[in-house]
Write a structure and sequence with these properties.
alpha+beta; six-stranded antiparallel beta sheet; TATA-Binding Protein
Length: 182
């Protein structure tokens, strides 16, 4: 291979990868572990040229369930404060920009933490929300990730959610009584 051919391959490779991903992942851009009641995203800095946020259609719910069976909420048999601390610990390890300081959870039974994450391939921003709620029997963690731009996230939002929740599972694994939801 000549130097020019090698450079052409290097320049075009990301586009080839994106084209491949566009064929294997469904055309979704807003993924949530709770499609019936997705965690609320911070919309304070959204503009009209960004993707509109709307509840998923039944078709989108079906596509998500079929393509991303591992995108599911978590339930832990731990104190609410412990789970919120674990979420904050995992967030602190990521290069995500919080849209507000961590919430004061004193006397609360639900907290939502919002951030902006960047996509792996093109670095496009995505809004992220992590909701931690004490339902009385356990503490439930749901997560949502929505691309600000583009008709297709190329699987990025689902990957972001499954990676975060897998790391959260590891963070709480040493706690007595930790039980991820099925």
């Amino acid at each position: 291979l000549s130097v020019r051919a090698l450079l052409a391959v290097l320049v075009l490779a990301p586009f080839g990868v994106a084209a491949y991903w566009a064929t294997i992942y469904p055309p979704l851009r807003d993924i949530s572990t709770d499609v019936d009641d997705p965690p609320a995203l911070d919309t304070s800095d959204r503009t009209s040229d960004m993707n509109a946020l709307s509840p998923p259609t039944p078709g989108e719910q079906s596509l998500q369930a079929e393509a991303y069976p591992l995108v599911s909420g978590r339930s832990y048999n731990l104190p609410f404060e412990t789970v919120v601390d674990a979420v904050e610990t995992v967030l602190d390890r990521r290069d995500w920009q919080l849209t507000a300081p961590y919430p004061d959870i004193n006397g609360q039974s639900e907290a939502t933490i919002t951030a902006v994450a960047r996509g792996l391939v093109l670095g496009l921003p995505a809004d992220v929300a992590i909701r931690v709620a004490d339902d009385g029997d356990s503490v439930v963690v749901d997560m949502r990730s929505a691309s600000r731009y583009g008709r297709h996230d190329l699987g990025d939002n689902a990957d972001r959610i499954t990676d975060f929740l897998a790391e959260l599972d590891q963070e709480v694994a040493g706690q007595v009584g930790a039980a991820p939801a099925e």
